[in-house]
Amino acid sequence: MTSPPPRSVRFFSDCFVKPPQLPPHSDHPLHLPPWDLAMLSVHYIQKGLLFPLPPRCLDPGFDRPAFIHSFLGKLKRSLSRALFHFYPLAGRLATLKRAEPPLYNVLVDCANSPGARFIHAALDMTVGDILSPTYVPVVVQSFFDHDRAINHDGHDLSLLSVQVTELADGIFIGLSMNHAIGDGTSFWLFFNSWWFPENHPGPLSLPYTDDPSSFLARYEAPELRERVFHFSADAIAGLKAEANRQCSATNISSLQSLTALVWRCITRARHFPPSQVTGCRMAANNRARLDPPLPPEYFGNSITPLGTAATVGELLSGGLGWAARLLHAAVAEHSNAKLREWNEEWIKRPQIYHLDKTFDQYSVMMGSSPRFNKYGNDFGLGKAVALRSGYANKFDGKVSAYPGHEGGGSIDLEICLPPATMAILEADTEFMAAVTVA
């Protein structure tokens, strides 16, 4: 008996949304600092929330088309109002080029753009069909626009795209935001505002030719299993206490302890030889680390990867506390002086992040943050039941940290690994002892 063909998303409408008016000076080009320009060759940020429909929408005789029409209208109007305050997201990238003296300056043109994209789609699946499988269904990647687009594509593609996908009993609201315009902090600041930089020597010229292929690379992920593991607040507290006990400390954080566990267990599942060097990187928010600090509301990229490394033999024999102490030291050393040095070096020798070169198969990368307020916007539908992400920026060893749905210090980790490695991780007793299985 053959299995039924996979269900696919149906697209109903597609339009662009602009702010009701542009604020003063928005017709001036917005020049990007190093943290933004370094992102030109990586994917858009793709995150979204899954909501069950209100019970009345499932009653016989309920006028669902009218409800959806009204809901989409409200979303578009509130998106327009939000874009007044976040008007660069309604723009497009542009490049100023000059042969003599050489100039290749990528900037945001806020005035000459049709706006942010808004898509209405539907899929014949239920909320349960999305949440019940062990692994995140591949069809979830279809809930996001700009599939596989890199940020430099923002010259032609919208810098922000919203896709509202109807399910049989729910709605998924997925945002794709150009990562050269903002980081995760900026993304969720915008997400939760919807409904309802450092000084540098002038515009930065990239040392490239007229052909952007000289500095861009399009990354295709290998076959990956993607699974969300839940860690209760009690389980994380236990990891933190054990990590501090093992290294006779009191300053190892909850996230450092959990990251140490993940680094160790994924490394063990990969079966590398003891002499192989393995790394663990974390995306660090630099706003508060700078002196003077950037305000929390700073919109743009202010993240850099920090990390540490050890041989496989050292990592697996050293214990949870040993690994957590390495991570803690890397965080403690991520100072204002280091960040300013990075900024100055980048201006002298610009480098664009490439996923296949920045991250490797021997390492683990911890991205996103459980500190982001990801369930704060209910769009009038009540609290979302889950958060999921698209294809973007996933590779062997990518881990994304989200706040647990129940809050209270719980954390969900979205882990991406090849199928064989994922199966070994799922059988790892140390790892699964910390996981809370529903």
Structure report:
It is a single chain. The protein is of the alpha+beta class. The longest helix is centred in the first third of the chain and has 22 residues, at 64-85. It is globular, with a radius of gyration of 22 Å. It contains 11 helices and 15 strands. 28% of the residues lie in helices and 23% in strands. The strands form 3 sheets. A 6-stranded mixed sheet has the order 1-6-7-8-3-13. The protein has a 6-stranded mixed sheet with strand order 9-15-14-12-10-11.
Give average pLDDT, whole number: 92
Count of alpha/pi helices:
11
The low-confidence runs, each spanning 5 or more residues with pLDDT under 50, are none
**Largest sheet: number of strands, sense, barrel closure:** 6 strands, mixed
Terminal Cα separation, in Å?
32 Å
Secondary-structure-based class equals alpha+beta
Global outline: globular
Helix content: 25-40%
Order of helices and strands: EEHEHEEEHEEHEHHEEHHHEEEEHH
Please give the number of β-strands. 15
Question: What value does the Rg take, in angstroms?
Answer: 22 Å
- Widest sheet, order of strands: 1-6-7-8-3-13
Percent range for β-strand residues: 15-25%
Provide the descriptors you would attach to this structure in a database record.
438 residues, alpha+beta, six-stranded mixed beta sheet, 15 strands, 23% strand
